[in-house]
Amino acid sequence: MVMDSKFHVAMFPWFAMGHITPYLTLSNKFAERGIRISFFIPIKTQRKFNHLNLHPHLIQFIPLIVPHVDGLPLGAESSSDVHVEKTYLIQQALDLTQDQVQIALEKFKPDIIFFDFAHWIPTVARSLGIKSVFVSTSGAVTNFDNRISLVNRLLIAMKESDALGFRACHETEGPFADFLKNQYNNKPVLLTGPLLTRTSNTILEEKWAKWLGGFEKGSVVYCAFGSECVLQKDQFQELVLGLEQTGLPFLVRLRPPVGADTLEEALPEGFEERVRGKGVVHGGWVQQELILSHPSVGCYVGHCGSGSMWESLVSTCQLVLVPNFGDQFLNTHFMTKGLKVAVDVERREEDGWFTREGVHKAVKLVMDEGSELGEEVRANHLKLSRILLSEGLETFYINNCILKLHDLLTT
Ligand SMILES: O=c1ccn([C@@H]2O[C@H](COP(=O)(O)OP(=O)(O)O[C@H]3O[C@H](CO)[C@@H](O)[C@H](O)[C@H]3O)[C@@H](O)[C@H]2O)c(=O)[nH]1
User: Fold this and answer.
1) Same domain membership, residue 304 and residue 244
2) Catalytic (active site) residue 116
3) Ligand 1 pocket check: which of 117, 195, 227, 300 to mutate, most ligand atoms within 8 Å of Cβ?
4) Domain harbouring 332, CATH code
5) Which is nearest to 388 in space by CA: 143, 218, 196?
6) What distance in Å separates the CA atoms of residue 398 and residue 270, rounded to the nearest whole number?
7) Which letter does DSSP use for residue 52 in this model?
8) Could you tell me if residue 145 is inside a domain?
9) How many domains does the chain have?
10) Alpha carbon of 362 to those of 245, 297, 357: distances in Å?
11) 219 with 153, same domain?
12) Which of 222, 332, 398, 411 has its CA 20 to 30 A from that of 237?
């Protein structure tokens, strides 16, 4: 299809796994269509992503040296290196890379730059004759609500850029995208679609394939809260105790909670012995997309970060959501009340915390045979996943984005 798609796009995502990953997925899809990419990335973080660059002849990483900011641990360069309360310092460090970015843009001369948190990009880009596109890794729904877009840098970024982009589909968030287009004086709005990596040529690590393979179809609960979330110790314990109470086998992937160096030291007393052979709590990276599509996994308990949200939407798992911060609350509201494909875990009115009983209740609600709500969310989820996985959907969104970028460059 795409006519003259030989333009050159620079990518500058926020220094976080959950942002770099979808930007790189989009880069791979653009590169498949012949588009050249210059991809800004913190220098040590690059190592974690080299293998995900599927078109190294077209996608060039531009490593950035992230300056140290007082209060950050030495060498910290992405949000997964720090607790969520310190991510504002990573934002300050990101702002300090402006000179490096400007020099690279002058040298490589891209036609367009995609960015999210670096609100100064439109000004720099404009001075160099480069079009800037604010591309949010969250959907249109979370940028619709003031609680999120009050963040000044995002408002400036959206106002100053030449176009807006969202990881979203008309099928799910059409009205929100239209609203944003109106709000921002009819700026072009690009929807990227679900941006799934579909790792068809990779297989699940033997250790997990074997472990999961030991359980009945659809019986295992997989629980993971993305790359950033660090729970309070009490919440971490309530979560695993709630999973234990369900009596179902479970695989939990979490970072150690606040104040703990390891997961083991934070587990409730006697927990490991009680769940041995049936439950695992793991701190290392796992292949989430492959786990979610494993036949033994029947339920996903997650934080509703945007990457996990899309991955879970195209899975056949029943969905239980426990949002922790930022867009995760709006994503959860959208999934439970808007799309009606998931349930959330109740929180106590007095302090907003969840309990083991709440976790247990929500999992049982979707997993118990004969549960009316469980059947309702399963049916809605199945209907939506069929649409999202339908042939041609991804091609439609990516090609459409490229057409809009082409228009942006020629008008
Ligand atoms: O062991 C792991 C842990 C995570 N992942 C993957 O890492 C990504 C995590 O992304 P996401 O689900 O979006 O979570 P976060 O990393 O927490 O994402 C941050 O960025 C998102 C996009 O802006 C926001 O929606 C979230 O709130 C914010 O926490 C997903 O693709 C997961 O499959 C793995 O493959 N293995």
Assistant:
1) yes
2) yes
3) 227
4) 3.40.50.2000
5) 196
6) 50
7) G
8) yes
9) 2
10) 12, 16, 9
11) no
12) 332
Domain that holds residue 324: 206-368
ipTM over 0.90: yes
How would residue 397 be classed by pLDDT, with cut points 50, 70 and 90?
Answer: very high
Cα 3 to middle of ligand 1, angstroms: 34
Marked catalytic residue, from 116, 162, 327, 344: 116
More confident residue, 131 or 201: 131
pLDDT tens for each residue of 326-338: 889 999 999 999 9
In this structure, the answer to whether residues 258 and 170 fall within a common structural domain is no
Q: What is the pLDDT of residue 260?
A: 93
Our answer on whether the CB atom of 311 is closer than 6 Å to any ligand 1 atom is yes
In a domain, 27, yes or no: yes
Report the percentage of the chain scoring pLDDT > 90. 87
Cα–Cα distance, 166 to 226 (Å, whole number): 19
The Cα 70–Cα 81 span in angstroms is 15
Tokens of 154: 């995002």
- Domain assignment present for residue 376? The answer is no
186, 214: one domain = no
Residue 200 pLDDT level (bands cut at 50, 70, 90): low
